[in-house]
Amino acid sequence: MTACHDESTARALLVRTARSLFDRGLTHGSTGNLSVRLADGSLLLTPTGSSLGTVQETELSRTDLHGTHLDGPKPTKEAFLHAAFYRARPSAHAVVHLHSTYAAAVSCLAGLDPADALPPLTAYYAMRVGTLPLLPYHAPGDSGLEPLAEHTARDHHAVLLANHGPIVAGATLEQAADAIEELEETAKLHLLLQGHPTRPLTPEQAAALAPTSP
Hints:
Layout lengths: L6 H17 L9 E5 L5 E3 L15 E3 L5 E3 L7 H10 L5 E4 L3 H7 L15 H6 L5 E2 L10 H8 L4 E4 L3 E6 L2 H20 L10 H7 L5
Parallel strand pairs: 6-7
Antiparallel strand pairs: 1-2, 1-5, 2-3, 3-4, 5-8, 7-8
Helix pairs in contact: 2-5, 3-6
């Protein structure tokens, strides 16, 4: 899906993706939020307090690129993070943020490298995610994170929020969802391998597979 699709198509795709993520256990309760950038530049987002398992097409919210609410229900309280990613990455047309179990668990570990929180254990992680900066803890909805998120997103399409979860931008919603699922699976591998010697990809191998914009 790109910005040329109409709003009706975007609504259907967003809800279908939300259902898929929820049904496969990648989010739970009322956690997680998704957005797409529409052809007019506005953002279509899941609303605050909603479950990705039950949200309806008619319940989606719309904001501008600065997070100003335009119409529909009140947007997710993390709408400012979505807007920050879109401003930083003009070629991105979708953003997915989850509280997926294994990535959230990694975000709580001590001693993570803030420049790159997960090692490139597999080729597909290197291709779909690349490096994963860790942003310092902010309470959910704390807009103080916005400038840091926007700055970091200029060079990285995926970040991990400390004690929270991942957020990923993509050229399409399918691409963003694939990347965040790959991130979750790599976080699972990372935790399974704790205490075992590992052999991640070398920096040269990872660089050869690094994703391009967005």
